[in-house]
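Field guide to reading this record: the first block holds the primary sequence, the second block holds the structure written as discrete tokens, and the final block holds curator observations. Each block starts with its own label. This record concerns Lipoprotein, putative, catalogued under organism Lederbergia lenta.

BLOCK 1 — SEQUENCE
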Amino acid sequence: MKNNRKFLTVLLTVLFVTLAACGNSSEESGVPVDNQSQSDNSTQNTNDDSSNVDSTENPSSNDNTDTDANDVDNNNANEKVDTSNNVPTKEEDPSAKTTAGLKEEYLKKLNDTEIAVEEIRKKYSDDTSTYAMKKVEGDRYDLWDALLNEIYGVLKEQLPSEEMVQLKEEQRNWIKHRDETAKEASLKYKGGTAEQLEYVAVLANLTEERCHELVEDYMK
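BLOCK 2 — STRUCTURE
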């Protein structure tokens, strides 16, 4: 009985010593770990603070730079607008379209009208009826007569007043000559289906000639 008690006492003592040794080991190992963790956290916080300082300063300097650049661009844009407003465009400048340019323009219109007449003739080339021929000559006369009126209007603006008075009288005489000549030519076919055709054809021929004459001889 005494031996059993002695054995239990020894066993309890051994367990107590073992537990005490384990407790001391955990305490010894725990202190350095906590200190190291705190040290690492302190270092990380320090680095974070320094990075935060940098990120705050850099956007500030960038903002200032961008603002200056925008101010320069805006000033340049305003200067360009102001400068362009002071420069007259070609449409605003009354001298932009020279008389030489007008003559070249209307020489081209004469050529374009001739091309248009040829297109009309081609359109009715397969139709030899009197109606088709009248249609061709009537359309041809309309084209040249419209261009003649346009040319005459330009000359009224371009020529000095004395020359324009002379041209106006000349034009009246030409119209009388044109109508009389066409009438006389048509009388050869008096009473026939070709009478009206001849009359319009002569009107178209003389009007075409007059357009060339006014552009080439009067337009400067």
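BLOCK 3 — OBSERVATIONS
Helices lie at 2-86, 99-123, 130-158, 161-186, 194-218.
The chain has two domains: 1-87, 99-218.
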